[in-house]
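Exercise (ungraded).
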Amino acid sequence: MTTKNWTQNHPLYLDYQATTPTDPRVVEAMAPYWTEKFGNPHSRNHFYGWEAEDAVEIAREHVANLIGATAKEVIFTSGATESNNLAIKGVAKFYGDKKNHIITCVTEHKCVLETCRSLQQDGFDVTYLHVQENGLIDLDALKAAITDKTLLVSIMAVNNEIGVIQPLKEIGQMCRDNKVFFHTDAAQAVGKIPLDVEAMNIDMMSISAHKMYGPMGMGALFVRRRPRVRLVPLIHGGGQERGMRSGTLPTPLVVGFGVACELALKEMAQETERLRGYQTKLFEGLKARIPEIYLNGDLDHRVPGNLNISFSYVEGEGLMMGLKDLGVSSGSACTSASLEPSYVLRALGVEEELAHTSLRLGLGRFTTEDDIDYAIERISKEVNRLRELSPLWDMAQAGVDIKSIKWAEH
Amino acid sequence: MTHTVYLDHNATSPLRAQARDGVIAALDLVGNPSSVHQLGRQALRVLEDAREQVRAAINAPKTAQVIFTSGGTEANTLALSGTDALRVLVGATEHASVLAARPDLECITVDAQGRVDLGHLQSMLSEGDGHAVVSVMMANNETGALQNIEDIVHLAHRFGARVHTDAVQAFGKVAVDFLALGVDMLSVSAHKIGGPLGVGALIATQDVQLTPVNRGGGQEGGLRGGTQNVSGIAGFGIAAKLAASDLADMTHIKVLRNQLESGVKEIASDAIVLAETVDRLPNTSFIVMPGVLSETQVMAFDLAGICVSSGSACGSGKSKTSSVLVAMKVPEDIAKTALRVSLGPNNTVADIESFLSVYKDLYVRQIQKRNAA
């Protein structure tokens, strides 16, 4: 396994859902496009432009191959957030006068939820499906929510906090049967689990490069051609990306994204097996050393690179402070600056106190077995230390039901 | 390809070595700048340092919003489709991203040199109701013509309108001073100043209210959702700093550009340099060789290893006449024979000589063909 030089003198990185290190092979592939191959891929007048355009088109093939699409169905964007905005707003604006109902889910990424909320202000009806305790949507609830006004179902492939995999194939079939577009935010899924837009009847799929060892600032939206999905663009101008997304494409980032997709396809099976072993080892190791910990989200329908664990009686922010040598997170990076408990965990029915004690542990390509041993050691030591300081833990050990305590109002 | 002469810097400019180093160093960072742990904060520091470099390079005040985007096109879109203004008035020679930003744009006419007609702007401002945003580019991407932004700001502000300027082509070629210009919003792009592709920024005064194009995540002050392109932004910061400090290099580039233009006129007495009589970017020439289609010229130059363009890269490969020249009321047969030459810091006298030698061959062949006919 390739190593990265940052592992020596930096905290141990266990936050692979926030972002992934750029694979050195990706960095290497990008290198010539920063300098000697610097052309604007839209310059149709000379060699530099053609060279850049060729590189862009090869990358487009790699992205398409990874998800079972054709290259013409891949629109490059600046990232999954832009892709999600483009997919949802784009379809809503194009077809909004015919159908005005959108179905999504309460545990979606903020950018999907905020986009849907903005469409509500424009007169759209949005159904926010609840999730079951394991984080998965209830297919019967989805079926019941679909009406003849339903235009779009947008359900993420893999959740960014708890790593659970939604039943994409079943959702896709249901949408196709009901002539509803199916969009999936697959930022956390592409390159991690096998995806096939044909078999899964996916009409639009958002992809992020930096979640799969590619560079930041790069993403794509798969837009189905048969049956065709049409979009109103968000960014107008030069008419690049078949008019769906204007702006000069960043050739090096596109090339890096393509190579990241190529590597993911080649190494997915092997990497999945390895990470599944680490995931089990980490979870079992923590369970063996720390009593009363809870896994959030389904274990079986889950990507191998994620665990989300509530360490009861320990405050998550305090735990993170005590684990400065670990790069871990208490939730999504986008909302991590706020002290609100995770809305994803709350949606699973995790109580606020317990939600506050959660850590997201993200594993990935550069994680080693030693890292797992170290993480088990450090986390268990820190949790047990903090619990020893906690009066609540004392009371709980003494058999007091914490929920029965009537806290004085301040 | 043995030796290539690159004269298409307005399409994209090669990455500066120092900016490249910054990009590569940032690619080795692992954190998401929104993550609170040490690695996240490290990425955030890179981002914020770059923000200050961009701010300083265009002399924007501490209070101004510097919003990183995926490039100039997105910055223009955010400025014009994100504004709460009821009317948006734009110059007729603007970049496609401005002209397409929203369906209800009102177009300000330009003169034969492509400069906005202030009289027309004034009557537009005095007619309509509701507050407006006026968007006029600082320098045109095809002709290089500079607009008088201060005058436009002065006029627009008298009517309570705000001003946005697309400074994508001006930045790094002439001084761009946000405070001195007095604009409310300004767009810049990294890859036109020797920074990486895929990054740009919209700079706006504190009191400008915008609605995001990309929602979510809350990044960039809630105005642009999505994990920032940290490596690109790092390179942009460095390139911006250098673009501002290396402005003196433009004196040398202007000398070369003028050599090129006088050389062309010596060869072809009927050649026309568009917008020649107004202040222009020091690196840009948009030259008409009557009777020879732009595409023919571009091909002849490309065969000789010289990269030039028939106009904006976004519009290239499409055989439509330049919308800039249409707005300038240049007759179509003339417009179809224009060639854009745009120089950069690495060009030399030898490059200009190579260009002129190919130009001469092409012109002589054309004369012979005309005489034979």
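Further reading is listed at the end of the chapter. For now, observe: Chain A touches chain B through 77 residues (CB under 8 Å). Chain A is about 40% helix and 15% strand.
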